[in-house]
Design goal:
Elements: H1 12-22, H2 25-35, H3 49-57, H4 68-86
Keywords: Periplasm, Signal, Transport
Family: Belongs to the bacterial solute-binding protein 1 family.
Protein name: Phosphonate ABC transporter substrate-binding protein
């Protein structure tokens, strides 16, 4: 889940309230039931059928977490190579 908030934008305070609600225990408890989503909070474990089905489908799947320090080392070269290959620059 990615969320962004722009300070000084129109309705900025309401945006902050929305983010706080979306990340609340109450909302995260219902995210799977309402949208087949998975909670991002480690202190929330829904009990609805969607969550159970999604958890079963993900059993044995290993999540890959990049080492961002390694990514940063070659980022400029990777971007240059991407532009060359895609002829986007």
């Amino acid at each position: 889940m990615s969320l962004a908030w722009s300070r000084g934008a129109p309705q900025s305070e309401n945006g902050k309230k929305l983010i706080n609600f979306l990340l609340s225990k109450e909302a995260q408890t219902r995210v799977s039931e309402l949208s087949w989503g998975m909670p991002v909070r480690s202190d929330v474990t829904p009990s609805d059928e969607h969550y159970k089905a999604a958890t079963a489908a993900l059993e044995g799947v290993q999540s890959w977490q990049p080492n961002w320090d390694d990514v940063a080392v070659s980022l400029s070269a990777d971007i240059s190579r991407w532009h060359k290959v895609t002829e986007s620059e």
